[in-house]
Amino acid sequence: MKKIVVLTGAGISAESGLKTFRDADGLWEGHDVTQVASPSGWNANRNLVLDFYNQRRKQLLSVQPNQAHLALAQLEDYFDVQIITQNVDDLHERAGSSNVLHLHGELLKVRSTGNPNLIYSWTNDLNEGNLCEEKHQLRPHIVWFGEDVPLLPKAAELCAKAEILLIVGTSMQVYPAASLIHYSKPNVPIYYIDPKPAQINFNNVNVIANKATKGVPQVVNELIMQVS
Q1: Phi and psi for 132 in degrees, rounded to 5?
Q2: pTM score above 0.70
Q3: Which of these, 39, 42, 50, 87, is most buried using a 10 Å CB contact count?
Q4: DSSP 109-136
């Protein structure tokens, strides 16, 4: 089976009802992102950060995957599919996708502040005093601004092996994630699905200027027809 790599961003989850900070001039649900998504914010007001992600976690559990998520899962019947997402939700997994790499962490997980290898699944509120087995405070398992992106090398390696590349719901302005397209092989077919697509200076890009729930099923159907 051909290997398809899919890069997804906030646009695909926004259609399920999840808001992103880029919807409102750098504010995320009314908060400056440095207050709730940076080590300095965590150090300045831990309870604010914990409450913020508790609210995001509740919101995530109230929404469902949309047609774009479901269409990408359907691709696995015909292709070797790897999803690399900037999103911290689990909508790809709930839609049925098997191979999902979360560049920026996962909202339904927490990790130890003293041992980053201690990671736990978490669906309830996370509060001050919730400790790991080594007695360190737990924090959201999210890559905050100013922190390293530990899975970036793995994502780059996957992109280098892609035989088809799909880019869905991303502005291609957020680095280092936006750099991943440069690891793809020359002349690999690229499909870029976004209602306001950025300019990509690759000759092999097929731009679908549409929202994910419209553009992804269209492209998925085209790809399936090519191999059926």
Answers
A1: -80, 180
A2: yes
A3: 87
A4: EEEESS-TT-EEE--S---TT-B-TTSP
Residue 218: both structure tokens together: 């269209």
**CA-closest candidate to residue 151, choices 112, 98, 105, 95:** 105
Using CA atoms, how far residue 92 sits from 16, 26, 95, 116, 177, in Å, is 11, 25, 5, 24, 18
CATH number at residue 76: 3.40.50.1220
Residues 70 and 112 both lie in one domain: no
- Whether residues 117 and 199 share a domain: the answer is no
Into how many domains does the chain fold? 2
pLDDT (tens, 9 = 90+) of the chain, 228 residues, equals 999 999 999 999 999 999 765 554 555 667 788 899 999 999 999 999 999 999 999 999 999 999 999 999 999 999 999 999 999 999 999 999 999 999 999 999 999 999 999 999 999 999 999 999 999 999 999 999 999 999 999 999 999 999 999 999 987 776 777 789 989 998 899 999 999 888 777 778 999 999 999 999 999 999 999 988
Residue 182 bears catalytic tag: no
Name the catalytic one among 69, 92, 102, 104: 104
DSSP-derived pairing of the beta strands 190-193 and 164-168? parallel
DSSP classification of residue 202: -
CATH of the domain at 54: 3.30.1600.10
Domain of 72 in residue numbering reads as 1-18+63-104+147-228
Q: Say which amino acid occupies 108.
A: L
DSSP lists the bridge partners of residue 140 as: 110
